[in-house]
Design goal:
It is built from six helices and eleven strands. The protein is of the alpha+beta class.
């Protein structure tokens, strides 16, 4: 800790000249650095040398809960002279927006839970907030037109954390990407349209019928070539397709035309035929089927517990 995303990533900091404070969008995101045995450089994919399969999140509710509790985000007001924290605002999770500090004693920040808020520079008290309907990772800007001040922010959810973090990607709450430019002024009365319903296919995978060896092979290949976009342990986000819910999961031929044939390359899904065989691609499919069945069983168990409690 910190993992590769750092204790602070690209999201811009801000400095307030009056108070002398620096405002930092900080985060705690751990990562398992496990060397891959007999690692060799590939023509495609992430050549990091990490064993992403061994470090993948297990389908264990207790471990997942502990990992979620340990994954945090905060707005930290830092005094660079005394090298001490002056105050902090704790967020539900990491990957929160960049900062904007204004001469009026305000600090603006959006967050991963879909809120855009203004805080008091001196003590961090929340003074105002707006439900943005999406995660906000950019920093805001302020400007004046004919003497009237505006605050604008590009709102939208995405980036390295949501697409790679697996089960932890919605640690701040289920968030989808609804990209907009939001602009505010004092007395503004504009409203967003109603929040669209979250459309998510159910977990309904075919049964897993292959050997453990095939699943393990698929796990290693998924970790190296797929997980950086489709999520740790094949748990996808709302930003890119969740392969556990893919319609191609039960059709080997369709899967092959995507992974090997590159039929979706126009959508950003390149062919991986130069780094894996058709049989290896098929082992990835079986690994995702295995993972989907694991998580479906967890969902059903959780629903059964809730019904029993009622």
């Amino acid at each position: 800790t910190p993992g590769p995303l750092g204790a602070h990533n690209w999201h811009p900091m801000a400095f307030d000249q009056k108070s002398g404070l620096v405002f930092i969008p900080a985060q705690e995101t751990a990562f398992p650095y496990i060397p891959e045995t007999n690692w060799k450089k590939a023509k495609q994919g992430f050549n990091t040398g990490f064993d992403m399969a061994s470090g993948a999140m297990p389908a264990d509710p207790a471990i997942r809960s502990a990992a979620a509790t340990a994954t945090k985000g905060a707005l930290i007001a830092w005094d660079p002279i005394t090298q001490k924290e002056r105050w902090r605002v704790q967020h539900q999770g990491p990957w929160n927006g960049g900062m904007l500090a204004t001469a009026g004693g305000l600090v603006f920040q959006g967050n991963a839970a879909g809120e855009f808020a203004a805080y008091n520079t001196s003590n961090g008290k929340k003074l105002w907030s707006f439900a943005a309907q999406t995660g906000v990772v950019a920093s805001a800007a302020t400007y004046s037109i004919k003497g009237e001040q505006y605050v604008a922010v590009l709102a939208g959810w995405g980036g390295a954390f949501p697409i790679t973090a697996g089960i932890l990607h919605d640690d701040g709450g289920p968030v989808r990407n609804i990209s907009r430019l939001l602009v505010f002024k004092l007395g503004g009365k504009a409203k967003l349209p109603p929040m669209p319903a979250l459309s998510e296919s159910p977990l309904d995978p075919p049964p897993s019928k292959v050997s453990t060896a095939v699943i393990m092979q698929g796990s290693k290949l998924f970790g190296r070539y797929c997980g950086v976009c489709h999520g740790d342990a094949a748990v996808g986000s709302t930003v890119l397709p969740d392969l556990r819910r893919s319609g191609s999961l039960g059709d080997a031929k369709t899967w092959d035309t995507i992974v090997q044939g590159g039929v979706l390359k126009a959508n950003g899904m390149a062919s991986f035929s130069n780094v894996m065989t058709a049989a290896e691609s098929e082992s990835i499919r079986h690994y995702v089927i295995h993972r989907a069945n694991e998580d479906k069983a967890l969902e059903q168990k959780a629903k059964g517990t809730k019904v029993a409690m009622k």
